[in-house]
Amino acid sequence: FSPLPTPAAAEDPTEPPPRSHRRGDRRSHAAPPLPRDVAPPPQNPEAGVSRLLSGGSGVGSAPARARSATRPAPQRPASCSFRTACCARGSRALGRPPRPGPSRLHGPRSYWSEERPLEGGEGTWGRPRQIIVDDDDSKIWSLYDAGPRSIRCPLIFLPPVSGTADVFFRQILALTGWGYRVIALQYPVYWDHLEFCDGFRKLLDHLQLDKVHLFGASLGGFLAQKFAEYTHKSPRVHSLILCNSFSDTSIFNQTWTANSFWLMPAFMLKKIVLGNFSSGPVDPMMADAIDFMVDRLESLGQSELASRLTLNCQNSYVEPHKIRDIPVTIMDVFDQSALSTEAKEEMYKLYPNARRAHLKTGGNFPYLCRSAEVNLYVQIHLLQFHGTKYAAIDPSMVSAEELEVQKGSLGISQEEQ
Q: Cross-referenced Pfam families, in alphabetical order (predicted)?
């Protein structure tokens, strides 16, 4: 979509309108280099739009400010019927007129032209790093990698069915500021759990990561458990944080339709996903989170949605005896969400020794509307690994007193075992 012409351009009909930077541009996969990192090249290096995280001119410089002032602002496409319907439904519940425009919950894409990108990674907020690890060039992993690269056991975020890598932007901004290395993923089209686990293992090999901490939301949490189960003989998962997640796909009563999602058109798949969103009265922050997730849902294609729903409903369950030695934190909410009370109780039975992080409210997306609480629980979970080789934080960010306390508590726990 092209931005609106400036007044000067409108007076001259012979001058073509300025072109905005297309976010979907990708390099041809005809002859990919090794390693096959297919992050799209910058459109205009002098404009300062696609600065790499590892360098580039700062936004505070005069040339950068001048370029920002002269560059036309990118325009977002108008909302489609599904987004409008969901916003209208939430707005009626709140007793206010519908908001057909973009959500007020600005994600990373709103920072792509003015904010300095996070240090220590490749790509920008507007364009995530894209990597191919399978023989099929159409399977592209998208990720944001932020934080110190010296950390070899980072925290990796896996999104839900309707999410993309940038739905965890609040966690990336906060945790990297405290010295953690964080990676937010968006997985490609996989139709089977075993196929996903094999592709994820290849991605970790490409990133040269032996073990990682996984944070999974809904479907992402189930896939994190399946990957830990898949690699139990040669462990690649050091700990798990499961947010509004489940351990058995039969709770959705859709196992008999799982193999037919690939036939359904995109609008029908989106309608299925939107049916699980909150429809009752919600506070403004939760309403903005729903609007933002609807916007992310609209960015997904038919094959991506169909494959995620297939993984979400395909008959499968977690075998707890294979991952019983992994530290687990179960994070859930007390208000309305897509998970039933029975599904939550089943998770508690599956992990009796897991830590429990309860949020009074938060709905389906607490990492967006209750990000401060979620970030606090994440830090508490990762605190037990400080001072070890599996710490996800830069050692220089941890005080000596905190390390002494952590070593003392670690020694007590080992004696109890």
A: Abhydrolase_1 (PF00561)
- Is 15 within a domain? no
Give the up-direction half-sphere exposure of residue 165: CA atoms within 13 A in the CB hemisphere. Answer: 23
Residue 124 lies in a domain: no
154: domain CATH number is 3.40.50.1820
The closest alpha carbon to 175, from 379, 406, 367, 366, belongs to: 379
Task: Please report whether residue 181 resides in a domain.
Answer: yes
Beta strands in 193-255 (DSSP E): 212-217, 237-243
Domain encompassing residue 346: 81-105+139-416
- DSSP annotation string for 10-73: HH-TTSPPPPPPPTT-----SS--SS-B-PPPPS-GGGTSS--TT----TTSHHHHHHHHHSPP
- Residue 22 corresponds to which amino acid? R
Rounded Cα–Cα distance for residues 411 and 390 (Å): 16
- Winning range, highest mean pLDDT, from 62-76, 99-113, 135-149: 135-149
Tens digit of each residue's pLDDT (9 = 90 or more) over 84-124: 444 444 444 444 444 444 444 544 443 333 334 334 344 44
HSE, CB side, 13 Å, CA atoms: give it for residue 227.
30
pTM of the model: 0.70
- Residue whose token pair is 């945790």: 175
- The count of other CB atoms within 10 Å of the CB of residue 124 is 27
Give the position of tokens 């049916």: 275
For residues 323 and 229, the answer to whether their CB atoms sit within 8 Å is yes
Q: How many CB atoms lie within 10 A of CB 4?
A: 11
Burial of 335 (0-12, 13-18, 19+ CB in 10 A): middle
Q: How far is CA 40 from the centre of its chain?
A: 20
Is residue 110, in this structure, part of any structural domain at all? no
102 burial class (0-12, 13-18, 19+ CB within 10 angstroms)? middle
Nearest CA to 186 out of 103, 266, 128, 271 is that of 128
The count of other CB atoms within 10 Å of the CB of residue 401 is: 8
Residue 141, phi then psi, degrees to nearest 5:
-85, 130
Helices 266-274 and 81-94: crossing angle, nearest 10°? 20
What's the domain count of the chain? 1
